[in-house]
Structures are given as structure tokens and as C-alpha cells.
Amino acid sequence: MGDIHISNLSKSFGGKKVFDGLDLTIKGGVTTCIMAPSGAGKTTLLRILMGLEAADGGSVAGLAGRRFSAVFQEERLCEYMTAADNIRLVMPASSLREIDTEMDRLGLSDSKDQPVSELSGGMRRRVSILRALLAEYDVLFLDEPFKGLDEVLKGQVMAYVKEMTAGKTVVFVTHDRAEAAVLADEMAKITETN
After folding, report:
1. What is the pTM of this model?
2. What is the 3-class SS of 66-87, one letter each residue?
3. pLDDT at 93 over 90
4. Of residues 192 and 183, which shows the higher confidence score?
5. Cβ-proximal residues to 129 (8 Å cutoff; 6+ apart), any chain
């Protein structure tokens, strides 16, 4: 549960600097919320931390050998598999009863056997969140995870996420100050001038 150290990180796309000289420490065992204006590189930073994108310069220390789980801005579900089977992809040794219990906690019990392609946007989002939370991970990345959820449902899902991630290393990106107020133990800001 060590810290993640980002040193002098830089990234550009097509000659436009997304960030330059970014220094940031993400503490282990807590939820760190990253807030910044659109275009400041929040998603790009997560992609670099997960190894999905290469930085132009700088370094990241503290992630070697660690397992990641993520909720991306876009859904990354297997459309023709059921909601329960999408979750079983990350926890094949678990019993269906355990998955059913957690799906019920997020209001998904009636949709467990439906193909994901038939689910509403809010249901799909909750399946994505649940799959990420139930995977075995050392670091959880959440990129605007609550988008598309109505306010009442969002509150319930945020409470569930907060409970399930207590004491774990979470990197959480949002534009919403209210979401940050609920989930964040630490706040971090990046700007285009970093």
C-alpha cells in the first residue's frame, strides 16, 4: 500500500502540451480525487498510470507489480453477456450467490440474467462499477464513474463505493465537487501549466 510518486511527467498530443513537469504523490490506502479543468489531462494521467499510454517524459514510481482495476468513462462491458457474467469475468472462483448479493446491494438483482445490451445506461454503469470493485486489485482507477446516474441513485452508489474502498488505494477523477466531498480523503489538482 505504498505511495505512487509522479515526477516531472509530461505529455503532448499533436504539439499541444497536456501537462508538463507534473509532480504528484498519490498516498497509499486512501482515495485521492484529481480535479482539473477539461483538457488538463486527467484521463491521460490515469491512462499513463495504468500503462495504457506512454508519457513523453518524467517517471512514475510505486506501481511495479501492482494489480489495477478501473471504471472508464465509456462502458467496457461484453454486450451479449449477462450482467452477472460480466462480473464473473473478474472473479471466476466466486460463487453466484456472492455476486447476487452484491448485485442486490446496487439494485441490480432483477437484471442479473439480462444481456448487458438490454440494460439502461444507469444499470450498465452500476455493472461497470461493481465489476471493478469486485476484481482483485491493489489500485483502483475511477474516471468519472458516476456519470449518467440520477442524483438519488448516485448517492446510493457513492456510499457503496466508499464502503467497498475503505483503506484501499483509489485514484478518482471527477468534475463534481459534491462527489469529491463524499469520496475523497485527499485532493489533487493538475493544470495545463504543471
Report:
1. 0.92
2. CCEEEECCCCCCCCCCEHHHHH
3. no
4. 183
5. 71, 106, 145, 157, 161
Note whether 88 and 78 are within 8 A (CB).
no
Q: Is there a contact between 123 and 83 (Cβ–Cβ < 8 Å)?
A: yes
State the chain's mean pLDDT as an integer: 91
Cβ proximity of 37 and 194 under 8 Å: no
Q: Is the pLDDT of residue 193 over 50?
A: no
CA dist., res. 193 & res. 123, Å (int): 38
Q: Residue 50 carries which DSSP code?
A: T
Q: How many CB atoms lie within 10 A of CB 161?
A: 26
Whose cell is 516531472? That residue is: 8
Three-class SS of residue 24? strand
Kind and range of the H or E element at 47? helix 42-49
Copy the grid coordinates of residue 143. 474516471
